[in-house]
Design a protein that fits this description.
The protein has 266 residues and is α+β, with helices and mostly antiparallel strands. It is 41% helix and 18% strand. It has a six-stranded mixed beta sheet, with helices on both faces. Strands 4-5 form a two-stranded antiparallel ribbon. The relative contact order is 0.19.
Length: 266
């Protein structure tokens, strides 16, 4: 997708500014013990970070942990959707073909629209998208955006699942804030399309969000990232939960912890 030279220069400047302001912003995170209480209610280790965009204040359950990098799992579908749309690998109305392999998750054993694949977190469909994007373009955008550590070790179609890519809750929130502000190095139409994917992924109309979950050597990493926009400016959030024995409640706990945290007075 072509962009005007003026907009490209503006985006490059904004990316440079965002990367250079990262350290100073990370020093301004406030500890809010009530956020930790929301997490402890579910009996999992982890952390919650909230950005109130009306005041530009960050609130964390654990200041150290929200700066620590974790495998992004399916939250990376936000980024890979941006790159796939920007490079023309897909359009918003593209139907992603099923590869014919029957998997345990029967709901993804079919052709899916981009929105369906995003909402259902259909890994095989997104792995094929990333293969089509290819290593050079994906690496270029990871570096340009400053997404986590931009590490693609582990294979082109695995690096965000059990490979070398890591991103902290703070980096997730900053990335999402830039997506909201149209200040990522993508076209306006691409960013609007991905915001629509996020809005469609959760049933509450006030919330735009994406889940993520992966297991590396028995350690489970569960994410819920996004923003809530009920009235006024959005509140951006990133929750990471960790467990060696997640049980049936782990998936819902990611969302429950975050909803409790969002409901607290700050």
């Amino acid at each position: 997708m072509r962009r005007s030279p003026t907009r490209l220069l503006s985006l490059l400047f904004l990316s440079f500014f965002a990367l250079n302001s990262f350290s100073s912003l990370a020093q301004n995170i406030q500890h809010l013990p009530e956020l930790n209480q929301a997490r402890e209610f579910e009996s999992f280790d982890g952390a919650v970070l909230i950005l109130d965009t009306s005041t530009d204040e960050y609130f964390a359950s654990d200041i150290k942990m929200v700066k620590e990098g974790f495998i992004p799992a399916s939250t990376f579908k936000i980024f890979s959707s941006l790159v796939a749309l920007e490079t023309g690998v897909v359009a918003f109305d593209t139907v992603l073909s099923w590869d014919g392999v029957v998997r345990d998750r029967t709901e993804i054993n079919r052709d899916l629209s981009l929105s369906q694949a995003f909402t259902l977190s259909a890994l095989p469909h997104y792995q094929e998208l990333v293969r089509k994007i290819g290593y050079p373009e994906m690496k270029r955008f990871l570096t340009l955006v400053g997404y986590g550590n931009a590490n693609m070790h582990g294979g082109l179609d695995r690096f965000w699942i059990d490979g070398g890519l890591r991103i902290s809750p703070f980096q997730q929130v900053r990335f999402l804030e830039r997506l909201l502000d149209d200040s990522l190095p993508f076209s306006l139409s691409t960013m609007e399309a991905v915001r629509k994917l996020l809005l469609n992924a959760y049933p509450a109309p006030s919330i735009s969000a994406k889940t993520g979950w992966t297991d590396i050597a028995g350690q489970n990493f569960g994410w819920w990232v996004g923003w809530e926009k009920d009235q006024g400016n959005p509140v951006v959030f990133a929750t990471i939960l960790l467990s060696n024995s997640p049980g049936e409640g782990f998936a819902e706990a990611r969302i429950d912890v975050t909803r409790k945290a969002l409901s607290l007075d700050r």
